[in-house]
Amino acid sequence: ANISTSFSGTLATSTTATMGALLNEKAGSGMAKGVGIQVLKDGSPLQFNKKYTVGRLNNQEIRYITIPLHARFYQYGPTTSTGEVESHMIFNLTYD
Question: Which domain holds residue 83?
């Protein structure tokens, strides 16, 4: 059976699901403006709502799977300001 993952989150302003950029959800004073978080898989932007096959299991097999992800700040607004950045991403694991 295949093991797959998919990821979702609130996209940063003026971005698409293929850019892997999450909106800064931090509110109030002290929040950064125009900056979010970009998630990378294998050095490329993670595509949200895309199914990634990460492994295969045979009947009653136990296996460890590593999914290397990295995150970095991402400017999505025309201007930025310093402050805190907080983003959330949902990780789905499917076995079929």
Answer: 2-95
Q: At residue 47, what is the residue type?
A: Q
The owner of tokens 């201007």 is 79
Mean pLDDT, each 10-residue run in order, the chain (96 residues)? 95 96 94 97 95 91 90 96 97 92
Distance CA 69, CA 19 (A): 14
> Locate tokens 């403006």: which residue?
33
| CA-based end-to-end distance of the chain | 5
With beta carbons less than 8 A apart as the criterion, state whether 6 and 69 touch. no
21: domain CATH number is 2.60.40.1090
Q: How many domains does the chain have?
A: 1
Using alpha carbons, select from 45, 50, 52 the residue that is nearest to residue 69: 45
Residue with tokens 């950045």: 85
Amino acid occupying residue 29: S
pTM reported for the whole predicted model: 0.88
